[in-house]
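User: Here's a protein and a ligand (adenosine-5'-diphosphate). What would the complex look like?
Assistant: Let me lay out the input and then the predicted complex.
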Amino acid sequence: MSAVVSLNAGSSSIKFAVFTLDRDHVPTLSGGGKIERIGMAPILTIRSVDGTVIEQKTWKDGQALTHAELLSWLFDWARIHLDGREIAAIGHRVVHGGPDFAVPRLVDEALLGKLESFNALAPLHQPHNLAAISAIAKLAPGLPQVACFDTAFHHDRPRIATRFAIPRALHDQGIRRYGFHGLSYEYISKRLAELDPGLAAGRVIVAHLGNGASLCAMASGRSVDTTMGFTALDGLVMGTRCGAIDPGVVLHLQTQVGMTAHQVESLLYKQSGLLGVSELSSDMRALSASDRPEAQEAIELFCWRAAREMGALAATLGGVDGVVFTAGIGENHADVRARICRRLEWLGARLCETANARGEPVISLPDSKIKLWVIPTDEERMIALHTASLLQDGAR
Ligand code: ADP
């Protein structure tokens, strides 16, 4: 039996999940973990499928440890602990596939070069995703690596949904709405088709509400519109990102307040959203536990903006048959779901408060015009499925 590894390399963390493949290349999760605090004092935690910690390691003087060195450590660990199973391929989450890539691709030098040209489109994520690919190419030359793009699921949206109202030449240079969280949406689309095929064939809004948050409008399981745009900064209120903002604010901060572009970037990506409004935390659980008015206002703004954008997507879809909540907040935070659903009553949504409080999969009342679902997302499995499928194609 062989194994594939799903890898999500960010600026200060690397998350990974190991899947064994059976003879038909069907992946089964066998464990996973993360390395956090890279660049400070890295901490590695590896868990088995039932969540038990099977390895924990800290590097106290690890400031200088690079992603490549930490990955090398991880590879050595996997060689010893994978019970003789061979890693057949690594699947990577790559945030930006640019205007061209609609499906996952096997990485080679030419593809890597092309993907590097999208670094400027996602400066906080793309370079780290690609650095992990380069590091593994050096550690294990010849090991197949697959790039799975967060933009790919949105690639075939109607053209109108990809345009900003700016001069055409800029659109042609790639300044357009791409959309992200595509691996999560693809997984939910697939899972909904298994759980509720009738609904999956209709008009559905999926709410991926985590530290990063966005919505996707799906018709027959395909993305037709989404709230994130050129970058993962657009759309909803997020943990530390502002979401949609009048571009005039950005101009004002630079020309009148005298902030540099770098300072504005940090403000909008790292100091805004729930954190900026609450002045307390970017974490929804911490805000819920607080009775400070600023914390409560941050939660209310998060829910109000989510419902407002759902109204916009309902217009895109010409009506809504279902809403699916997913990711950390969407899957776990009953109060946030309830606040959003109450704002959708004008569309005919009727929440079952009991099912919602209990965290059941279906949280709408039988007479609700909109079916309300809670479905856990699994981006790692989606990456493993794509990687296994490309391996199988290669073996044919
Ligand atoms: P990321 O975008 O980093 O993957 P997650 O999907 O893990 O984010 O979501 C993180 C958010 O989910 C945080 O705001 C956190 O408070 C919230 N969250 C996670 N677990 C729970 C829980 N059990 N109850 C309420 N909120 C939760």
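Summary: Residues 197-374 form a domain with the Nucleotidyltransferase; domain 5 fold (CATH 3.30.420.40).
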